[in-house]
Hints:
This protein is an alpha+beta fold.
Amino acid sequence: MNRNTIIAIFLILVVVTLFSSETYNKFFYENIYPKKPYITQSKENKNDTQKEQVKIDSKESDKNDSDTAIIEKNFTDKADTNIKADSVFIETDDMVVCIDEIGASIVSIKMKKFKYNEDKSKKRKKGDLIDVIPENSEKGMNLSINKDDYSNKVFKSNSDNKNIKIENSDKKIISFESDDNGQKIIKEYVFTNGSYKIECNIIKNDLAGKNVEMRWECGVEESEKNKPMQPEIRTAHYSDGKNSQHLQFTKEDRENSSGSYKWAGVTSKYFFVAIVNESNKDADITINSFKDDKDVENKKNTTINYKFSYATIADNQKESFWIYAGPNDYVELKKYNLAFDNNLFPVLSWAKWLFFSDKWFPSLAEGVLWLLIHLYNLVKDYGVTIFLLTLLVKLVTYHMTYSSMKSMSRMRDLQP
């Protein structure tokens, strides 16, 4: 077996791995069928949240004025009945976030630069801002301390303004306070304009030594309707900041893992949500898959979504987390230096075990993507970018191709 044969076999393996990978599936459904959500700079803000009635009075003559929102809910738990609780809306240049005072949990994160390109449901129409939290789902950033669930407790906001707009390079802290058997517990969110990062601090005098768990129980939205024969796109991940584990279940299942993990999250085709704790401590990660029934051409189609949680032991009276909720953009994900970008190149198929593709394919794919991005930044045209990449590949493989052609020519000359 000569060198050219070995190289040819290697290239065949690469091609087989590529076409059976999640990366190729994402490319196909993003660029060929169907179209991806388009980007806009629109400032529209239409907030609908689970089991809430929202009344928004706005002055069209002054777009910079904040909308006023009044939200009333009836809620029943062991301690309180008929609780009236507000929601707080925080708007930055990139997102509009709705935080419910019940649990101080996140019920909506709308992407201001992305819109639905088709009607998703009766409430989520073509042209509406994409919400990364699925409709009629649970909430995000639910809190438990030593297994005591605080997602049903009322946390009152420290701000009388329920519609907060953050501009320029401003940073805003929004605190929610509740009473826990005479002890004050604070859930504090920190927003910085121009970022998809939302900080969340848990503050309690006797927090040190207790198990603090943050749960994302709503999964992540698929911004398009399910199509017939479309492969499952959503994937769960967890990582120590360098190496990542990728999970994709076909049924309701559960995975638990303990170690020095820094984040856990879930990706859809276009968006990524993760809970992050950058302290170098042991953590318990739990991933739960659940069925998500959707209508596909008047037929029920079951897809899989993922709940996940991150639990660790607090060192002092304050434990800090943050979440990323934004697009699966390579440049954006690379900023955080936490291996978020590994999510773009998961190897989940049989090739992972047969060819050990998870060891080399992500690096190869990332290198090609890096080259594409830099070529595009140079010429500002995707057609020219693809042409230049093809030309570079031809130049790299020229020697091998030329040697192979020469060998074939000699074989023809030897034939009788």
